[in-house]
């Protein structure tokens, strides 16, 4: 549209277009709402900072720097009891692996009961979904406290906490993957006269198994971090060593343990990527 054409448009035409498309030109009400939202957000942020006493960082900065300096000033390293540290790390990895593996196996079956296309009976499907809401709605740390009370201190409580929490989340993710499959492959397998088990084996699993493997590998990495936190409530593993060192003000040993845990996370991430490339077909870029 040229400048001459625009000059030929009169006020009546402009008013008619405004009436036909009021939202395209904006309005004072819309601008007022937009400014009210921004003012509300800014006021909420400022109020939250005031409520949570953020200015205490200024008074605590000296203590923070002393703590950081203590964590990276390593002394008397020959007395650090490395056997206990690496035994705790091994327990943490075992807790994460066993809990995630059991959760993946349970979710492999539960996911089919929670998916709409594999469980047509609505009441049972909704019952399974509500159960999964309960399992993942309770934080993993709370499950750790429950199982520490039930089975006592030790790694078993951590394994059970990871298993219950991850089962709820993985089952939901698995069911969503099952619901998003290509129906044609399933119908083709069913047209051959295959029974329900073979339909699942050859119609569903080839499509969803790569997704299942990828999600389980990610949860194994996540559960390794969670197992460290679970140790703080007595569920065994490296977390118990960390809290013991903290209480004894051995911050240099705490830093050493945390660095070792980070190395384990990096190795797990690298191995997970290699497994995905091997079984899922991802290629490195």
From TrEMBL:
Record SUPFAM superfamilies: MetI-like
ABC transmembrane type-1 domain segment(s): 89-272
Transmembrane segments: 32-52, 89-115, 141-164, 227-248, 254-271
Membrane topology according to the record: Multi-pass membrane protein
Keywords from the named record: Membrane, Transmembrane, Transmembrane helix, Transport
Signal peptide limits: none
Record flagged with keyword Nucleotide-binding: no
Localisation: Cell membrane
Chief subcellular location: membrane
InterPro entries: MetI-like, MetI-like_sf, PhnE/PtxC
PANTHER family hit by this protein: PHOSPHONATES TRANSPORT SYSTEM PERMEASE PROTEIN
Similarity annotation: Belongs to the binding-protein-dependent transport system permease family.
Name of the molecule in the record: Phosphonate ABC transporter, permease protein PhnE
Gene from which this protein is expressed: phnE
């Amino acid at each position: 549209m040229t400048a001459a054409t625009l000059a030929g448009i009169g006020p009546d035409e402009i008013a008619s277009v405004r009436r036909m498309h009021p939202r395209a030109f904006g309005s004072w009400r819309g601008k007022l709402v937009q400014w009210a939202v921004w003012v509300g957000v800014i006021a909420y942020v400022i109020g939250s900072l005031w409520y949570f006493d953020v200015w205490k960082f200024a008074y605590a900065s000296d203590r923070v720097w002393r703590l950081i300096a203590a964590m990276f000033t390593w002394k008397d390293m020959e007395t650090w009891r490395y056997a206990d540290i690496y035994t705790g790390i091994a327990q943490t990895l075992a807790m994460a692996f066993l809990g995630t593996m059991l959760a993946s196996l349970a979710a492999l079956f539960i996911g089919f009961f929670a998916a709409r296309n594999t469980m047509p009976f609505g009441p049972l499907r909704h019952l399974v979904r509500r159960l999964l809401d309960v399992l993942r709605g309770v934080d993993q740390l709370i499950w750790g406290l429950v199982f520490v009370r039930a089975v006592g201190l030790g790694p078993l409580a951590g394994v059970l906490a990871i298993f219950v929490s991850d089962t709820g989340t993985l089952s939901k993710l698995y069911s969503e993957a099952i619901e998003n499959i290509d129906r044609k492959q399933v119908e083709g397998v069913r047209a051959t006269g295959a029974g329900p088990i073979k339909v699942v084996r050859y119609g569903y699993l080839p499509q969803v198994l790569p997704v299942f493997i990828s999600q389980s590998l990610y949860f194994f990495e996540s559960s390794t971090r969670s197992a460290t936190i679970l140790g703080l409530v007595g569920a065994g593993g490296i977390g118990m060593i960390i809290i013991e060192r903290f209480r004894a003000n051995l911050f240099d040993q705490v830093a050493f343990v945390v660095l070792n845990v980070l190395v384990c996370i990096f190795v797990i991430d690298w191995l997970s990527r290699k497994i995905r490339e091997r079984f899922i077909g991802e290629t490195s870029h």
